[in-house]
């Protein structure tokens, strides 16, 4: 009877999962093997032709490379910046609450809003905010921030880090406050330096938080769409194009739902592989720390 009651509670969740995930995923897999355009219901089986087009399309390959670059770069940079920031915000100093609120506020606006704001700041025109400052203060020429491929990629990654550091620092701060202060007092009595306390106490205690943070960063980075689209529209060329943008453009704007479905299937497999790898590494780290 108890099992039946538990199953009853799980039925709504199962129904939502089936309707919103399983059925659309099955349809996407099916359309990826057909010539479905997104409008006509008359489809024919084409085998792996759509997947061949994906791997021969330079725009899609560029989207794949930048998506991986963005996800990995933002994960590493945000983690490296957020942990020291959280440690600094955990200390007692005048205006600490205001500082915590300020850094957290950086993560409140959506990435789409941040993209629009920073598009104005990084404008490659001489009237751009950053170029105006460089010209006024240093007498420098205008920099093509969003008009040159490598600079555009760097700008997108920078804004991604800007928008994520505050939130993840708050996450780490919550884990820091859960560490017993007695551990640090005992370490000081034993003569441990601040660096030794960080390596032997703080960092091991932050491992669960690092696992959660990096999981969110990687999965979010692989699915990123709004920030590059509002900041650079995927340009110049395809230099800041992402996989999610490619799926939308191929499937909706260009009426190539078959190719867009193939990209979506490959994207789903890639995200699942990354998530499973992260979970495996996290479990191994937690076992080694216990």
From TrEMBL:
One of its GO terms (cellular component) is plasma membrane. GO terms for biological process: transmembrane transport. It is a multi-pass membrane protein. Pfam families: BPD_transp_1. Keywords: Cell membrane, Membrane, Transmembrane, Transmembrane helix, Transport. The lineage of its organism: Bacteria, Bacillati, Actinomycetota, Actinomycetes, Propionibacteriales. Residues 64-280 form the ABC transmembrane type-1 domain. It comes from Tessaracoccus defluvii. This is Sugar ABC transporter permease. Belongs to the binding-protein-dependent transport system permease family.
């Amino acid at each position: 009877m108890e099992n039946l009651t538990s199953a009853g509670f799980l039925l709504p969740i199962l129904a939502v999962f089936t309707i919103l995930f399983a059925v659309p995923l099955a349809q996407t897999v099916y359309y990826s093997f057909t010539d479905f355009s997104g409008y006509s219901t008359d489809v024919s089986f084409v085998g792996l032709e759509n997947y061949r087009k994906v791997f021969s399309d330079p725009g899609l390959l560029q989207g794949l490379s930048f998506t991986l670059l963005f996800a990995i770069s933002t994960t590493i940079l945000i983690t490296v910046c957020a942990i020291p920031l959280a440690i600094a915000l955990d200390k007692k100093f005048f205006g600490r609450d205001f500082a915590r609120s300020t850094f957290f506020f950086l993560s409140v606006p959506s990435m789409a809003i941040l993209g629009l704001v920073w598009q104005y700041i990084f404008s490659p025109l001489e009237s751009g905010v950053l170029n105006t400052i460089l010209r006024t203060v240093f007498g420098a020429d205008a920099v093509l921030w969003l008009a040159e491929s490598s600079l555009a990629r760097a700008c997108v990654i920078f804004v991604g880090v800007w928008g994520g550091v505050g939130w993840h620092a708050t996450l780490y701060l919550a884990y820091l406050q859960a560490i017993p202060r007695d551990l640090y007092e005992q370490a000081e009595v034993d003569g441990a330096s601040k660096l030794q306390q960080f390596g032997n106490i703080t960092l091991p205690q932050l491992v669960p938080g690092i696992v959660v943070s990096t999981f969110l960063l990687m999965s979010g980075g692989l699915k990123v769409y709004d920030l590059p689209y509002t900041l650079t529209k995927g340009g110049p060329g395809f230099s800041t194009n992402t996989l999610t943008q490619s799926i939308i453009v191929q499937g909706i704007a260009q009426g190539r739902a078959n190719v867009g479905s193939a990209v979506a299937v490959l994207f789903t497999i890639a995200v699942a592989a990354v998530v499973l790898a992260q979970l495996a590494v996290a479990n191994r780290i937690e076992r080694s720390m216990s």
